[in-house]
Amino acid sequence: xxxxxxxxxxxxxxxxxxxxxxxxxxxxxxxxxxxxxxxxxxxxxxxxxxxxxxxxxxxxxxxxxxxxxxxxxxxxxxxxxxxxxxxxxxxxxxxxxxxxxxxxxxxxxxxxxxxxxxxxxxxxxxxxxxxxxxxxxxxxxxxxxxxxxxxxxxxxxxxxxxxxxxxxxxxxxxxxxxxxxxxxxxxxxxxxxxxxxxxxxxxxxxxxxxxxxxxxxxxxxxxxxxxxxxxxxxxxxxxxxxxxxxxxxxxxxxxxxxxxxxxxxxxxxxxxxxxxxxxxxxxxxxxxxxxxxxxxxxxxxxxxxxxxxxxxxxxxxxxxxxxxxxxxxxxxxxxxxxxxxxxxxxxxxxxxxxxxxxxxxxxxxxxxxxxxxxxxxxxxxxxxxxxxxxxxxxxxxxxxxxxxxxxxxxxxxxxxxxxxxxx
Length: 423
Known about the structure:
Layout: H1 3-10, H2 23-32, E1 41-45, H3 50-63, E2 68-71, E3 83-85, E4 88-89, H4 92-107, H5 115-129, E5 134-138, E6 156-159, H6 167-170, H7 174-181, E7 190-193, H8 198-211, E8 214-217, E9 223-229, E10 232-237, E11 240-245, H9 250-268, H10 275-284, E12 292-295, E13 299-302, H11 308-321, E14 327-331, H12 339-343, E15 352-355, H13 366-375, E16 380-382, H14 386-397, E17 402-406, H15 409-422
Parallel strand pairs: 1-5, 1-6, 2-5, 6-7, 7-8, 13-17, 14-15, 14-17, 15-16
Antiparallel strand pairs: 2-3, 3-4, 9-10, 10-11, 12-13
């Protein structure tokens, strides 16, 4: 098996989509020798900010000298991003070897695992083979029935910002979604939450009381912005003065507050993490695709925002970082997203839209998106190929303008590839 064959197997069309339940994951892990039981975890669920929170936490743990695994989804540029140790992605050789080990075990099951379940099991085996001290584990979707929830009680269970997304699976209200996410709280464990409405926080409090979980709420009151620019932002959080991170946006300060609360619990449990490790970890964290500046002249920013809360954060970032600049949006969207509501808040801030078609079966054709935006009063042009869209957006922006890419995570890889090929 080579790397292409391994990825083809993982992505094979014979795998089912999202099918709730943990039985398949438990069964496959049992055949593998239960690698998850040899690891320690920080388990992170939520609607928005999971990846950034996970990246910050992992960065701090690395600075503290721990061999740190990081499991995230979806990937932005390459599948290998999903499994990292100490900031390095799984190699082709490792992915092939583990896939060869797992494949016959999965195929021997009467009820075969889904793609995400398979990938999660591969991840556990990778982290075990690398001898990780701790793994920062991001939930795929939901909480209670997500395949990552097969782990024993984690060092800390973390829930980031809650919003209305995947409502067909997770619930129609914020409170219902919160209850699903709270499924990662395990008896006698510790939990940290991103501050929310009283009714949402009450859901978490109730579950924690039922399961004897010690609950800690992030300190948003102690957050004080100091400065921000396209090279990063600095802020205070409680007793931490002058923290700095390259991750942009006011929401990233709140994510950092969640991380600080998480690290506080880890230190109470005996993990040796200094204040300097925290400063260094936040300063050096990297998380691609989140208001990410990938080129200058014109300024080219890639943002993976694709739900209402992400767009709200994006609108604030445009005001905070791009005020007075001519903004050209390079965008594509999936047909099953509520793109009418998604684009409305951004339209007054964008001079031109360049529409492309995401490489996904659920795609909305670029021409249909352009027609929708024009009917709503925006200037929009459709491009058949993503590379053509990149070229046109750069030309429209000129040296002093901004190309802002957002809408669907599925376009980001092809956009970055087209940008790199331009040199």
